[in-house]
Design brief:
By secondary structure, the protein is of the alpha/beta class. Helices cover about 50% and strands about 10% of the residues. The strands form 3 sheets. A 4-stranded parallel sheet has the order 5-4-6-7, sandwiched between helices. A 3-stranded parallel sheet has the order 2-1-3, sandwiched between helices. Tetramer of two alpha and two beta chains. Forms complex with the iron protein (nitrogenase component 2).
Length: about 425
């Protein structure tokens, strides 16, 4: 077969190899397969307007959703804390998918365990699975914290995580004072950004319980949100160091997902120290770098911590300017000359490349905050958005994106496709390219 360590091919190219083509021909003998001409005719038909109308009329089917499910975001949030092991109350298969997805994306080992619920747990509940699972995890992997979330199975049967964790501690699975925050993360509602938000709120509420003091520690808290480019965390730290700002990142997974190759395995590289996270309740303010993956967490911080929160997305010139000015306003620290020079270089680069992007039409899909930020930057460059697809959209995002588009003359012809999937995007792109 052509797929081997010396010749790794993408699946699209792989299936065009002679061996697979012969396999497909053989299958037609007992599958009543259509002729090549009929397949080509239907393929061409799916590129037209008639098929587009049928595609957009479907209601009971999702094809290639542009989102993940809640536990994916939950475990992504959890590994940003020092020595934290994600624990998923659910089946092994689900957790294997989450680990594999993140491991393949970052090319880093991503640790996470499962309570391995099977048929008996689906009938009687997963309490015993958690008792055994927490005990094994604590003894084998020596974490400083275990963050628990759920899959569909545990949610459908109604597992009570708080009661299960209490029972597990009573059974001696982990010490009574060992932190085991949790979040209910049913995959059949929301998306990975919802799971991130739920887990972040769960971890912060657990670690900060009883930690409120009379005076502020003067620090600024940053919540990156579900941002897969972990280099942004390092940039935030660099900027704060340049400005002399004390800060805490909630949570910093930049080392976990981009660790150096030192020749020695570290199961829990980096991460926000648990004591710093616990003290974040005494911070001066919290800045969320994403809005829609931090909504519940920000509401919790404002209500329970009595701490002001700000959403600031430092993408493009406008967004970065607003971020730096807000940072200076909150801390009283001046913006360093070095950052002004860097801004000038960025503006110069934009000016130099403007002719290559000005007037170019584009389509985009992704998470709400990422799409908002990239579209804003492209509008600054003079590009013209045509189709904007956000599967995990919401009313607040729809409103703010439309306001952004309306504020630029080159954004007024764009269409937002909220709640649509990538098969819808295929129809849109076929007609756009035609």
């Amino acid at each position: 077969m052509p797929q081997n360590p010396e010749n790794i091919q993408d699946h699209v190219e792989l299936f065009h190899q002679p061996e697979y083509q012969q396999l497909f021909e053989n299958k037609k003998q007992f599958e009543n397969g259509h002729s090549a001409e009929e397949v080509a005719r239907v393929a061409e038909w799916t590129k037209g307007w008639d098929y587009r109308e049928k595609n957009f009329a479907r209601e009971a089917l999702t094809v290639n959703p542009a989102k993940g499910c809640q536990p994916l975001g939950a475990i992504f949030a959890a590994v940003g804390f020092e020595g934290t092991l994600p624990f998923v109350q659910g089946s092994q298969g689900c957790v294997a998918y989450f680990r594999t997805h993140l491991t393949r994306h970052y090319k880093e080992p991503f640790s996470g365990v499962s309570s391995s619920m099977t048929e008996d747990a689906a009938v009687f509940g997963g309490l015993q699975n958690m008792i055994d699972g927490l005990a094994n995890s604590y003894q084998l992997y020596k974490p400083k914290m275990i963050a628990v979330c759920t899959t569909c199975m545990a949610e459908v049967i109604g597992d009570d995580l708080q009661a299960f964790i209490n029972s597990s501690k009573s059974a001696g699975s982990v010490p009574q004072d060992f932190p085991v925050p949790y979040a209910h993360t049913p995959s059949f509602v929301g998306s990975h950004i919802t799971g991130y938000d739920n887990m972040m709120k769960g971890i912060l509420s657990n670690l900060t319980a009883g930690q409120k003091k009379e005076t502020s520690n003067g620090k600024i808290n940053f919540i990156p949100g579900f941002d897969t480019y972990v280099g942004n965390n390092r940039e935030i730290k660099r900027i704060c160091d340049m400005m002399g700002i004390d800060y805490t990142i909630l949570a910093d997974n930049s080392d976990y997902l981009d660790s150096p190759n030192t020749g020695e395995f570290d199961m829990y590289p980096g991460g926000t120290k648990l004591e710093d996270a616990a003290d974040s309740i005494n911070g001066k303010a919290t800045i969320a770098l994403q809005a829609h993956s931090t909504a519940k967490t920000r509401e919790y911080i404002e209500k329970e911590w009595k701490q002001p929160t700000v959403v600031s997305r430092p993408w493009g010139i406008k967004g970065t300017d607003e971020f730096l000015m807000k940072l200076s306003e909150l801390t009283g620290k001046p913006i360093p000359k070095e950052l002004e020079i860097e801004r000038g270089r960025a503006v110069d680069a934009m000016t130099d490349s403007h002719s290559w992007l000005h007037g170019k039409r584009f389509a985009i899909y992704g998470d709400p905050d990422l799409v908002y930020s990239v579209v804003g930057f492209m509008l600054e460059m003079g590009a013209e958005p045509v189709h904007i697809l956000v599967h995990n959209s919401n009313e607040n995002f729809d409103k703010e994106l439309k306001e952004l588009l309306a504020s630029y003359s080159n954004g007024k012809s764009a269409t937002l496709w909220a709640g649509k999937d990538l098969w819808h995007m295929r129809s849109l792109m076929c007609l756009l390219s035609g």
